[in-house]
Amino acid sequence: MKSQWVKNLRPGTEVASYFGITNLNIGKTKNGAKFLKVQLGDRTGTVEGRVWDSALAEDLYRTLSLGDIVIVQGMVTEFNGLQVNLETCTKVSKEHVELNDFRPCTDKDIPAMLKEFRLQLEKVTSPPLRSLLDSIFNPDFLDGFSRATAARTIHHAYGGGLLEHTLEVIIYCSQICELQGEAMDSDLLITGAALHDIGKLWEYDQECLSFNLTEDGRLLGGHVILGYDFLRREIAQVDDFPEKLARQLLHMILSHHGLKEWGAVEEPHTVEAVALHYADLMSARVNQVSRLVNSHQGSEHWTSFDRYLGRCLYVPEKAKKQRSS
Ligand SMILES: [Fe+2]
Ligand SMILES: [Fe+2]
User: Fold this and answer.
1) Does domain 104-289 have CATH number 1.10.3210?
2) Residue 257, pLDDT score
3) By C-alpha distance, which of 296, 292, 319 is closest to 308?
């Protein structure tokens, strides 16, 4: 569907393609004529667009909304950076659109990650956990899960991020199982890892381009509680699911953030819950830091101060070269 990507636009390029609307405003020229300022985006970046015909600009401002997908025609010019002068801008249905083409998306191959995710889950042999995983991760569910984000900011905050993060946590957990042997219930840990952030499917609006928080996400305790609630209902559907196993698995969901000030309902009280918490933290932090380092612009070897981490990060030559290539 997409024929042109933001990252490939240059002055003089004729544009005829689909984009998402990431910002929309009316401006006024020095002569008082109204024009439309529209930010167009896709998975490769954003570019400013302008509609100079004031009647069309006002009409579009009334009828378009943030998050709409539009097909545009226009010409790229250079004015304080790239700008597309738009002749047409028409809203299209999202029905047959791959949303991840229009918002930040994982660099990794989603079908390959999904294949690996399935292989990892096949290691779980305990009958009740096997039944639970089979009934949750059906093809339809996996389709939505594989496109979803893990966050709005901080870590894995892009389409496919939930699958990428969950897979990383599963792989860290299976390494912990290998190292710890029988000290760890590997079926329980892998199942907990696969399900630990499942509530994010309902915490964020996975169908919008900016992954806004949903009302359930804002009002019902975020993904920890939404995931716990979902899992309780799913466990109830599995015949004879052992009560003690259910309690341990649900505890892993409630405690995976580790500390109450980090959003955990309980601190981890089992060896599998402790392992899951650290695997989760490892995946989140490594992703957060590498995204900050790799998105750093400018000639300095240090990023600006990151409030969340409480420090600046060092950007070695290798990362700088990778970005400029
Ligand atoms: Fe989480
Ligand atoms: Fe997580």
Assistant:
1) yes
2) 98
3) 292
